[in-house]
Every structure is written in C-alpha cells, then in structure tokens.
Design a protein that fits this description.
single chain; mainly alpha
Length: 158
C-alpha cells in the first residue's frame, strides 16, 4: 500500500472565481422568474379559474337541487292534504246518500205499512159487512126454508 499525498485545496483565486456571480447566473435567475411568471399566467391562473367556476357551478346546482326538493316536498304535502280533503268530502257525501236512502226507505216502508193497514181495515170491514149480510141472508133464508119445511110437513100431514 502506498500512501498518497492529500490533494491540495483549491487556491484562493479559484474560490474567488467560483463565488463571484457572472452574467450566466443572472440569466438563469431571469429565466427562472420569466418561467414562473409565464407558468402562473398561462397555466395556473386558467386552471384555478376553471376550478373556481366548477365549484361555483356545483354550489349553485346543490342550491337548485335543495330548492327543487323543498318545492317537491311542499307539493307532495299539498297533494296529500287535498287528497285527504277530497276523500273526507267523498265519505261525507256517501254518508249523506246512505242516510238519505235510509230515510227514503223508512218513508216508503211507513207509507207501505199505512197503505197495507188501511187496505187491511177496508178488507176487514168489507168481510165483516159481507159476513153480516150473509148471516142476515142465511137467517132470512133459514126462516123462509123453515116456513116452507113446516108448511110442507104440515101440508102433507094434514
């Protein structure tokens, strides 16, 4: 193994040359600033603007959807209320019609009952009158028949 001699450090002139900026370093900084400005104005600004527009569109769409949902729920509630009102009205009308039909039935039944009772009374009185007339006729005929029988029986016997 051989030992090497350590390298010599750079001289002061070399270090001074490295530390003093030259025009290329200024050009690099200028190009870097120019690239930053161009990227910011030509790329990042339009992209950020599109992102903001989309976010605004999403917010307005959500607001519109919420508004439509509220209107739909209000319309559904109004529909249910009107439907219930219509149902109750129909049930009330049906109940009124049923009561009216029952009243008509009761009136018709009462009128029929009165007519039947009147006809029954008329028929009963007619039957009683005919019965009395028939009895009277039978009594008369029985008397005439008895007189005829007696006169025949007595007329033969005599």
């Amino acid at each position: 193994m051989s030992w090497r001699r350590p390298r010599r450090l750079a001289s002061r002139d070399t270090i001074k040359c490295l530390l003093t900026p030259d025009i290329t370093a200024l050009w690099v900084v200028g190009f870097l600033l120019l690239c930053t400005f161009l990227l910011k104005t030509l790329v990042f600004k339009p992209i950020l603007q599109i992102i903001d527009e989309r976010s605004h569109a999403v917010r307005s769409a959500k607001e519109l959807a919420d508004s439509a949902a509220q209107k739909a729920s209000a319309a559904a509630a109004e529909y249910d209320q009107k439907l219930n009102t219509a149902r109750s009205e129909i049930y009330r009308q049906m109940d009124d019609m049923r009561k009216s039909a029952l009243d008509k039935r009761a009136d018709l039944l009462a009128a029929t009952r009165a007519t039947v009772e009147q006809e029954l009374e008329t028929a009963t009185s007619r039957v009683q009158q005919e019965s009395q007339d028939a009895r009277a006729a039978l009594d008369r005929d029985a008397s005439n028949l008895a007189g005829a029988i007696v006169s025949r029986v007595l007329g033969r016997a005599s």
